[in-house]
Write a structure and sequence with these properties.
Elements: E1 2-3, E2 9-11, E3 19-20, H1 23-44, H2 50-57, H3 61-64, H4 66-89, H5 91-110, H6 115-143, H7 148-177, H8 183-186, H9 188-198, H10 216-239, H11 244-267, H12 281-311, H13 316-321, H14 324-344, H15 346-364, H16 373-400, H17 408-444, H18 449-478
Antiparallel strand pairs: 1-2, 2-3
Length: about 500
């Protein structure tokens, strides 16, 4: 490794052309990471604003959930389609379209006069976020060659991604307490405009497969199936897993996704998702681990927030500020991960990170109804976030390292789908466990509501700990250590 006169890093790998990290690469990485942060923040920023939105726009409790659900359903449902569109149409082109649409949708949400307009704007935000999220990883893979340059870029991306959820909660609490809930959307507008200007530093790419046909049937069935899966999972809190409505939706989801697989294997000339990709152990293992990691991450924010507000009776702002330590720890863990990968390899870094996540989730199971926010929230969430932060970069690297440039878009989409839908499905399962435990406790002791809620949250974290054990095992089985070494290869 040498440093040029502009302090740019140059890796020399035998006779291969040298890669020089220039100021353009830095600018492009800032643009891509900032766009990814917008996606992550908007998943959680609305939570703190829900009471204010409900009061001002007159939403019912059931309609209020759609302010979040409309975003999540479109986000999860269109990730694969957006990823493939980038492969076929050009990744920067799809990225720019996503940022522009997100900016317009944010303005519409900020000035929404009615609940219907707000929910429609949130759905459009989710659609745009799918394009942004699937393209940021793909463009990083295009801009930076595998090895140390890509690992460094992914460390920055992982830091931003890992911190964005907590930052969304913090930002939401501050803005709602200050200028009002409309500002949680309004702040996106100038950022979006700056990002659109900044895309000039992102290298333009050409579609990798000129003349390829677009798999329309695969696009429709996969998007409909993924969207319906997200919708079904989000409805379980209202109807319950055993209701005829949920069973019917689940059957229709299974039918759509089953036909999608059949179509890709037997009929598609140019598959939306080449199933040969799943022969790549790195991508398969990373997808499984991402789904389990998403479950733990979603559960932490969901249960810890409810515990603080419903049991410890903390305000929205105080609740959000409790996530500052875990944000710092996530950043430190993501930055340190590439160094650990060069020392230990991806497999062991992910396994150790999962072990920390198990410890943090299990610590949460001891929470008390008369507990202390430091002992029962800040410390366990810090340990859990340390583990989750350690996993971000090596999991992403393992998933993308062996994909060809032509498949990087759909590979990025798969990793994002596994994280988002895995987190949504996992949270629904954990919520069911928590609700069952709470209801059972209330049936025996109806006068101990706070204790019943606490035991329910603890049960949810217990399931999360078990899922992270599965993530550690998946890392040991699927991932390899061929990226271990002094040069991160």
């Amino acid at each position: 490794m040498v440093f040029d006169s502009e302090h740019c890093v140059q890796d020399v790998e035998g006779g291969a052309p040298a890669f020089v990290w220039t100021s353009r690469h830095t600018a492009a990485l800032i643009v891509l990471c900032t766009a990814q942060a917008l996606d992550g923040i908007d998943v959680t920023v609305v939570n703190a604003a829900l009471p204010s939105i409900q009061h001002q726009l007159g939403l019912s409790s059931s309609a209020l959930t759609w302010v979040i659900n409309a975003y999540m359903i479109l986000f999860g449902g269109f990730l694969l389609l957006a990823g493939r569109a980038g492969d076929l149409l050009g990744r920067r082109r799809v990225f720019v379209a996503g940022v522009a649409t997100f900016t317009v949708a944010s303005m519409a949400a900020a000035v929404a006069p009615t609940a219907g307009v707000l929910i429609a704007a949130r759905a459009l935000q989710g659609l745009a976020a799918a394009a942004i999220a699937s393209m940021t990883l793909a463009l990083i893979a295009t801009e930076f060659p595998s090895g140390r340059p890509r690992n460094r870029a992914l460390a920055v991306w992982g830091t931003v991604f890992g911190a964005s959820g907590a930052l969304g909660l913090i930002l939401g609490g501050v803005l709602v307490t200050g200028p009002g809930w409309r500002w949680i959307f309004l702040v996106n507008v100038p950022i979006g405009v700056v990002l659109l200007i900044g895309t000039r530093w992102v290298r333009a790419d050409q579609p990798e497969r000129g003349g390829q046909r677009f798999d329309f049937v695969g696009a429709v069935t996969s998007t409909a199936g993924a969207t319906l899966l997200a919708f079904t999972v989000l409805q379980t809190d209202r109807y319950g897993w055993s209701s005829a409505y949920i069973i019917g939706l689940s059957a229709l989801t299974a039918l759509l996704l089953s036909y999608f697989v059949l179509h890709e294997v037997r009929f598609a000339r140019e598959p939306l998702i080449p199933l040969r990709l799943f022969r790549d152990r790195g991508l398969t293992g990373a997808s499984v681990i991402n789904a389990l990691r998403g479950s733990a991450m979603f559960a932490m924010f969901y249960f810890a927030t409810l515990y603080q507000q419903q049991v410890l009776h903390r305000s929205a702002l105080a609740t959000s500020l409790a996530y500052l330590p875990l944000t710092a720890v996530t950043v430190a863990a993501a930055v340190s991960a590439p160094i650990l990968v060069r020392m230990l390899g991806s497999r062991w870094v992910v396994a150790v990170g999962a072990a920390f996540a198990v410890a943090g989730a299990w610590w949460f199971t001891g929470m008390s109804s008369v507990g202390d926010v430091v002992i029962d929230v800040i410390l366990p969430s810090t340990v859990l976030s340390l583990g989750l932060g350690m996993m971000i970069v090596p999991v992403t690297t393992a998933g993308l390292s062996r994909l060809s440039p032509a498949d990087s878009g759909v590979g990025s989409g798969l990793l994002n789908v596994s994280l988002q839908l895995g987190g949504a499905v996992g949270l629904a399962v954990l919520s069911s466990a928590a609700t069952h435990t709470t209801n059972t406790r209330l049936a025996d002791r109806p006068d101990e509501a706070a204790e019943a809620l606490t035991r329910g949250f603890a049960a949810g974290f217990g399931v999360a700990a078990a899922l992270m054990v599965g993530a550690a095992l998946a890392a040991l089985v699927f991932l390899r250590d061929d990226d271990r070494g002094p040069r991160g290869r």
